[in-house]
Write a structure and sequence with these properties.
Bound molecules: zinc ion
Structural class: mainly beta
Strand content: 25-35%
């Protein structure tokens, strides 16, 4: 199961697990530019991710609504169907998971430079 990221709005970037205790989302898979953690937000917060629907000739979008409880924990994650065609499927990104151009993380990535780990 995966949802649309409410920060970078790429489809199926927030994988989540549903069990008896609730919904447990993982950080956004789009780590390089996003990586947002949606498990927690402000109390009674409301976030929304939006992405084009899977129907090729449709201009509509599919949304995921994130709702938070009094403790700022994700309490509900609801998919909202496309208002135009009614699908709840998002556009599939081809080649997801295989990025041949970047086999290794770039050491010059922004955000890492100011966080040096001291060596023994
Ligand atoms: Zn994201
Ligand atoms: Zn549609």
């Amino acid at each position: 199961m995966a949802a649309i990221c409410p920060n970078c709005h790429l489809p199926e970037m927030v994988a989540y697990i549903v069990n008896d205790e609730g919904t447990h989302p993982l950080p956004c898979l789009n780590q390089e530019v996003c990586g947002v953690i949606v498990a927690r937000s402000t109390p009674y917060g409301h976030l929304m991710g939006s992405a084009p629907c899977a129907t090729s000739d449709c201009q509509g979008s599919v949304r995921d609504e994130y709702r938070y409880d009094a403790n700022g924990r994700l309490s509900r994650l609801d998919r909202v169907r496309c208002q135009l065609c009614g699908t709840d499927k998002t556009e599939v990104i081809k080649d997801a998971g295989s990025t041949p151009e970047r086999p290794l993380p770039d050491p010059r990535m922004p955000g890492i430079a100011g966080r040096r780990v001291p060596h023994g």
